[in-house]
């Protein structure tokens, strides 16, 4: 875990830790209802009308566990670079799927946190998109401070999955 450092970079370390804790908590919270109710999440995935039918159930089972594990990894700082990279990628994929459906005029439940539908009934997908776009702020901060510290070698694939 990143412990605050002494000196001028201590603010950056605290900001990085805060961003990791916030994103980790968001991903853990988002995974819980999906893990408990995979059939409801499978319906949400189906409603996006993007994935072939053969991948819907696998996505509904694997994705929530991935979110849970990545959230835990972010909080404890385990495999930090890989976790930051994958969380940022997932958020971009989620936003892309929402943007695709907004462009097609579909207004469906995003399936982001609760899959019951009652808590999200009547909310336009555009609001989900804006909310999730805000999640990209700490993700981009972590991504750029993790991978763009003046070392172009950090962009190599093996570096993404190292501590």
Task: Describe the structure in your own words.
- This protein is mainly alpha-helical and 163 residues long.
- It has one domain (12-150).
- It is 69% helix and 0% strand.
- It contains six helices and no strands.
- The protein has helices spanning 10-36, 38-47, 53-76, 80-103, 125-147, 157-160.
- The longest helix has 27 residues, at 10-36.
- The chain is globular.
- Residues 4-8 have low confidence and may be disordered.
Number of domains: 1
- The level of helicity is 55-70%
Estimated structural class: mainly alpha
Major β-sheet profile:
none
Separation of the first and last Cα atoms: 10 Å
Total strand count, please?
0
Strand content: under 5%
Averaging pLDDT over every residue, what do you get?
A: 82
Which term fits the overall shape? globular
Task: Provide the succession of SSEs.
Answer: HHHHHH
Oligomer: single chain
The residue ranges in which pLDDT falls below 50 over 5 or more consecutive positions are 4-8
- Quickly count the helices: 6
Estimated radius of gyration = 17 Å
